[in-house]
Design a protein that fits this description.
The protein is an alpha+beta fold. The chain is 20% helix and 39% strand. The protein contains 3 helices and 7 strands; from the N terminus they run E-H-E-E-E-H-E-H-E-E. It starts with a strand and ends with a strand. Bound molecules: coenzyme A. Residues 19-20, 75-77, 82-88, 110-111, 113-114, 116-117, 120 line the site of coenzyme A. Coenzyme A (COA) is lined by residues 19-20, 75-77, 82-88, 110-111, 113-114, 116-117, 120. Residues 1-145 form the N-acetyltransferase domain.
């Protein structure tokens, strides 16, 4: 059974790098705010191997009015471990954490290919698609808790 643990930001790089920054250096896996006290990272493990990660930042988006908003970033599951329910478990862990913090809104910039996954988790698209650097088309998605 996979287990989810809270982890330091550096532990996410083993998944962020191959999945989200393939062919790029580990430096590109460092996100602004990774080590703020209000940021948390979770990893899903099996046999002490990290298989997927999610990070949750306290950050407000201009689209929303809720006082305490949280942003999911760095959501990734190793390619050979995808479609086994691990991503689902990671999002649930992040939601549980946000609930504990009394957060009312979760939002993020979703890659186009991941929109279907987040729809299944109850998130909806808001606004127009936009481009992020060399990564491609993204959508803002959100859920009110
Ligand atoms: C998107 C991602 C995190 C999903 O994680 P995962 O572990 O593969 O997802 P799960 O197995 O938990 O899937 C949960 C449900 O969503 C579905 N799903 C998974 N990926 C999907 C996708 N890209 N599009 C549509 N549905 C998807 C699954 O089939 C499953 O549905 P079911 O419950 O009906 O069987 C993972 O595929 C990934 O890391 N992709 C590459 C990086 C990426 O795009 N990250 C998101 C950046 S915004």
């Amino acid at each position: 059974m996979p287990t989810i643990k809270q982890i330091p930001s550096q532990a996410t790089f083993a998944v962020r790098q191959p999945v989200l920054r393939p062919g790029k250096s580990t430096d590109t896996c460092i996100f602004d705010g990774d080590d703020l006290p209000t940021t948390n990272h979770f990893g899903i493990y099996e046999n002490e191997q990290i298989l997927g990660v999610i990070s949750i930042f306290q950050a407000n988006h201009e689209f929303f009015n809720e006082e305490r908003q949280y942003q999911i970033r760095g959501m990734a599951v190793l390619e050979n471990q995808q479609k086994k329910g691990l991503g689902d478990q990671l999002v649930q862990a992040a939601e549980q954490y946000v609930c504990q913090q009394n957060g009312k809104k979760i939002w993020f910039n979703a890659r186009e290919i991941a929109v279907g996954f987040y729809n299944k988790m109850g998130y909806t698209v808001i606004g127009e698609p936009f481009n992020i650097g060399d990564i491609g088309t993204h959508f803002v998605m959100h859920k009110t808790l």
